[in-house]
């Protein structure tokens, strides 16, 4: 009896089945292939990578744009007339889309590392297309209604660039395993294309090694050079905890350590300065209920008696714009629900009792307004009536300097040092996107105080602290109060050590991976087929050994078929010869 030794033993490949099954619905072994992927599937892989990079950018944008979510909702409100938090569906869809695309990309990379043919399932193709188109439409929409917000990306790099560099370096280093495997297996593509892939990868790697030379991070500095903690100005009070521009809101700001109060001032038709951010009263009062026919009128076209009759707190309890109403006690809700529009005199009296300063953003009345020529006298009278020292009141914009005396005047635009000296200005109020680290240092060197707004996130507060900004204006003093020190602070020598060490470690790993892949492939090329046959049962084989064994079995089957064909032909010839 002859005992046959099997040439091939198929082992269960649970992980491979999981990867190919979810990615391309190829759960069975016979459905899978280790041939080169088609150009169509390679195109889909490129689309998948592009979708991942776009969603990575999109997710990063929304993570840093949290500082300005209130501004985004206000922009949407000004267009739609309906106040609601539009950031929730955007964040949810971005999280789901990014997770989905990332999962598919990981499966695709496993396909490449395992030598499996890419074959994205048609359902996933629809999902990737829908996710990509949705993200592109979101980018276009944001560019239309919130174009200025793109500046926050460049500002955020001052805080995140060192960490993004480490993450990108680790990712590109890990990708070297796939690049090395692709380049060293020469039989899979042309030599010129391999050289091009290797060259592009090398250029990307070198660029990552050198990109820290371009970083401008204020928090890379010696600790002894760190200036005092910036003062926090309650911008419209504490609008995340209570309705903006109300007495309760200003009190909450003071409770959370605000050293100054900021307010937007409008002039009523009978000459009473009051606090209102919007042009109309629709969003923050019940004017649609009390004066429905006038709800779209300019707020300054109402007299003070009419304005005072409006409720300025119920909208906050109903809309819950910052998801903070649930944290309020029953007593706090009752007090908020009875708030009215605050006058300038009330706010200044509160600041005077707390012995703090006030920053006023005056909105000039329309030309047809009865107080268009006397608005500054109305404002001065309110300041004097409140009893606050005029030195504690800062006035913007920088106009009517010859008529407004005694008050501190600030410009809310970026000016050169020469212009500041000519106007006699001692302070600037700038948006964070307009206040670069270099500009701040120049202003401070010339004894010009700088206030930056809006600053609601700890990372932005930290980089401005490291830049030496004396004060910031914030909608969230309760958040910044919990930042006793910059989030991160590192000396230049320490960062240089981390940077160079990371680059050297990455270079060593990449060279090691290429050498290992070269050694592995050279070993496979020198493998004896007879050894494969003798050790097929007793040893677990690698993917490349299995391929060689399958080719060997296929060659043996072809020889057997040829022998059977020759024997059949000879038998037929012999039969015809005997018959003849």
UniProtKB/TrEMBL annotation:
How does this protein lie in the membrane?
Multi-pass membrane protein
Q: What is its main location?
A: membrane
Boundaries of every GP-PDE domain copy:
230-484
Among the entry's GO cellular component annotations, what is one? plasma membrane
One GO molecular function term of this record is:
glycerophosphodiester phosphodiesterase activity
Where would you find this protein in the cell? Membrane
Name a single GO biological process: lipid metabolic process
What keyword terms does UniProt attach to this protein? Glycoprotein, Hydrolase, Membrane, Transmembrane, Transmembrane helix
Which SUPFAM superfamilies does this one have? Answer: PLC-like phosphodiesterases (SSF51695)
What are the transmembrane regions?
42-62, 88-110, 122-142, 162-184, 196-215, 497-516
Record's superkingdom? Eukaryota
Which positions make up the signal peptide?
none
Q: Does the keyword tRNA processing apply?
A: no
Give the matching InterPro entries: GP_PDE_dom, PLC-like_Pdiesterase_TIM-brl
Record keywords: Cell division included? Answer: no
**In which family does this protein belong, per the annotation?**
Belongs to the glycerophosphoryl diester phosphodiesterase family.
Q: Name the PANTHER family on file.
A: GLYCEROPHOSPHODIESTER PHOSPHODIESTERASE DOMAIN-CONTAINING 5A (PTHR23344:SF49), GLYCEROPHOSPHORYL DIESTER PHOSPHODIESTERASE (PTHR23344)
Protein's name in the database: Glycerophosphodiester phosphodiesterase domain containing 5
Q: Which organism is it from?
A: Sparus aurata (Gilthead sea bream)
Q: What is the lineage of its organism?
A: Eukaryota, Metazoa, Chordata, Craniata, Vertebrata
